[in-house]
């Protein structure tokens, strides 16, 4: 398995590829506020009854800081101050998002920020040392002697720290300290870590990566991965395959070999998947044919759930095969679920013949991220535009881009690989060439 990562001015995109097929896909806007995002915010007002402060980020995003997430509470523990003693109106704080809010709720933030490494998690204001539950007491005592912390600092030793030399742990701690000092000087929103680093930590058994960003290469190599960073103009060819996969993953229909297909319907409360035989019908051995289709469908369904990040309640209407076939399908689903990083529960077939399962929820599905009130979302607009602009930049100096202008990220305009002339409308690239040619094109359209 290999991570493939691409960064554009506004987007971070990461795909996990196994055997030439994309099995996971992750993306985020670089200026998007998510769990782990670090940002500076000003205290707007205090709410003594709730014992909380309401903050405004530099980009205008409202935030919620409860009293138990303030540094003053951490410093005075076990005594708890009032919110007025902990923070003051007008004060600017460095905070980190710990829970994403959904309208009308604000994002929940903390002042007890963290920086994650391969072996350590650093808490600049944590004030205590913690260990992974997988480390036994003897190993914990050995690790505690390797690093000396300042009184205000805190540290968590990951499981992998047991195999690391003391010099490696100290070097990583110094890197994490430097990141904190960098954030104290910053005034803009910043993600704690790039998306590919976060995902590589989550699946530590993946040992290879293909990236476009120099810092990602250095960081992944420090984590022990074999990393390739081609120095080429334009895009990584491997990401073009990812684009095609994601385009298909937004369709309701998924074709199987031989003409059978899946119909995937995501509704508000659950996901329904229908298995259809198409033209794969053998009248003489219908049940055997249906069992074969169901087995192929079970494997593809588990891949699609992971690729599309579909979660919650899921009902699958398999074809009416034999009872042995149903047992085999259930077993296949459980085998594939064991390879998942998210918890999947397979409940089996109901009396109506539906197969029930649930998948642990972690963020929105690919379809939910791509639509906003029935229209392409902000991230979908950038996903469509920015890879294409990166290709165009290899042979043109400017492009006429049509898009909903209110949805465009300021980072695209600041860091685009070529000059952009923007036109309001449905997303698309209208013209490319020299700056003069693009200006002439716009004049002719007026």
Automatic annotation (TrEMBL):
Cofactor: Mg(2+)
One Pfam family recorded for the sequence: RNase_E_G
Keywords for this protein: Hydrolase, Magnesium, Metal-binding, RNA-binding
The UniProt record lists the keyword RNA-binding: yes
Keyword DNA repair carried by entry: no
InterPro entries membership: NA-bd_OB-fold (IPR012340), RNA-bd_AU-1/RNase_E/G (IPR019307), RNase_E/G (IPR004659)
Superkingdom assignment: Bacteria
Span of domain RNA-binding protein AU-1/Ribonuclease E/G: 117-361
PANTHER family: RIBONUCLEASE (PTHR30001), RIBONUCLEASE G (PTHR30001:SF0)
Designated name of the protein: Ribonuclease E/G
